[in-house]
From TrEMBL:
<protein>
    <recommendedName>
        <fullName>Twin-arginine translocation pathway signal</fullName>
    </recommendedName>
</protein>
<keyword id="KW-0472">Membrane</keyword>
<dbReference type="InterPro" id="IPR006311">
    <property type="entry name" value="TAT_signal"/>
</dbReference>
<keyword id="KW-0812">Transmembrane</keyword>
<feature type="transmembrane region" description="Helical">
    <location>
        <begin position="21"/>
        <end position="41"/>
    </location>
</feature>
<keyword id="KW-1133">Transmembrane helix</keyword>
Length: 180
C-alpha cells in the first residue's frame, strides 16, 4: 500500500494511510509527523489539523516556537496550540512566505529545510539571521501570549495564576520560587 489507497468508504483517497502514518512516524526519529492536512506527534497522543497553512509549514512553526522559547519540560502539544492561531487566511501569506524564506536559508547552509537542521544551534543561528524581519517578529510576539497564557503550562514554571482573589502574593509564596 502507498499514500494513495482505497478508503473503506469507496474510491481512492489522496492522503496518508494509517500504515503510512506509522511508517513516517517511526522513521529516523522524527519528532513530528506531517500528513495531508495535519501535523501529529510521533511519541504522544495529539494531532493538529491545518486549514490555511500547509502541514509542513505548521510543523516548521512548532519547531521554530520551540527554538525561540526553549523549555525541555514543555511538550510539543503546547507549542502547537501556541502557533495554531497562525493557521488562518489572514496570516497565511506572511507565514508561508516566511517559512519558504527560512527553508531557502537552510538550503543555502546545506540542509534540506529548517526542520532538517538536526542541531538546535544551527536552527537558532538561522533564526538570528532573520530576527529583525516581520515574519520572525510576528511569530515571536504571538508566542509570548500563545505559549505562556496556557494554564496547563503554568505549573511547569511554578506559577499558580492570579493572586488577587486569594489575598495577593505577599502572603502567598512571594519568596518560594525554586525554579530560578
Amino acid at each position: 500500500m502507498n499514500d494513495t489507497d482505497i478508503s473503506p468508504s469507496g474510491p481512492a483517497v489522496r492522503g496518508l494511510t494509517r500504515r503510512g502514518l506509522l511508517a513516517r512516524g517511526f522513521a529516523a526519529g522524527a519528532a513530528l509527523v506531517v500528513g495531508a492536512g495535519f501535523v501529529a506527534a510521533r511519541d504522544a497522543a495529539w494531532a493538529l489539523e491545518t486549514t490555511a497553512l500547509k502541514p509542513e509549514t505548521m510543523a516548521t512553526l512548532i519547531q521554530m516556537a520551540r527554538d525561540i522559547y526553549p523549555h525541555d519540560r514543555i511538550p510539543d502539544r503546547f507549542y502547537a496550540v501556541a502557533v495554531k492561531g497562525y493557521d488562518s487566511a489572514d496570516s497565511a501569506e506572511l507565514i508561508e512566505q516566511g517559512v519558504a524564506a527560512l527553508n531557502q536559508l537552510a538550503q543555502s547552509r546545506g540542509f534540506d529545510s529548517y526542520l532538517a537542521a538536526g542541531w538546535e544551534a544551527d536552527r537558532v543561528e538561522m533564526l538570528r539571521m532573520i530576527e529583525h524581519g516581520p515574519f520572525f517578529q510576528t511569530i515571536r510576539a504571538g508566542l509570548v501570549t500563545g505559549l505562556y497564557n496556557q494554564k496547563e503550562v503554568w505549573p511547569v514554571f511554578g506559577y499558580e495564576g492570579e493572586s488577587f482573589s486569594k489575598g495577593g502574593y505577599i502572603d502567598r509564596g512571594f519568596n518560594d520560587i525554586d525554579w530560578l
